[in-house]
Design goal:
The structure is a single chain. By secondary structure, this protein is an alpha+beta fold. The chain has two helices and three strands. A hairpin with a 4-residue loop joins strand 1 and strand 2 (about 25-30). The longest helix is centred in the last third of the chain and has 12 residues, at about 70-85. The N and C termini lie far apart (about 45 Å). The relative contact order is 0.14.
């Protein structure tokens, strides 16, 4: 993906990226053009809009990965709810 400066249209350089979730990140970018003429710096949001083709992962694999990140008490509550099905 090529990023351009919103002020002058020159290329941007990404110096740091913070991954906020699996689908969203924020990147710190700066204008690579003439610093005396522009010098823009900012934060760019990167997010997935929608899926065109679903993952080939099994649904159970996805659920396991999500459940592994839950707090133990929350995990037990969900297990109790699933036992009722």
């Amino acid at each position: 993906m090529r990023l351009t400066c919103p002020c002058c249209g020159a290329k941007c350089i990404v110096s740091k990226t913070n991954k906020m979730s699996l689908e969203y990140s924020e990147s710190y970018a700066s204008c690579a053009g003439d610093i005396e003429l522009c010098g823009w710096r900012g934060v760019i949001s990167v997010a997935y809009k929608h899926t065109l083709t679903p993952s080939r992962k099994e649904t159970s694999d996805i659920i396991y990965q999500l459940a592994a990140k839950l707090a133990p008490d929350t995990r037990k509550q969900i297990q109790a709810q699933l036992a009722l099905l």
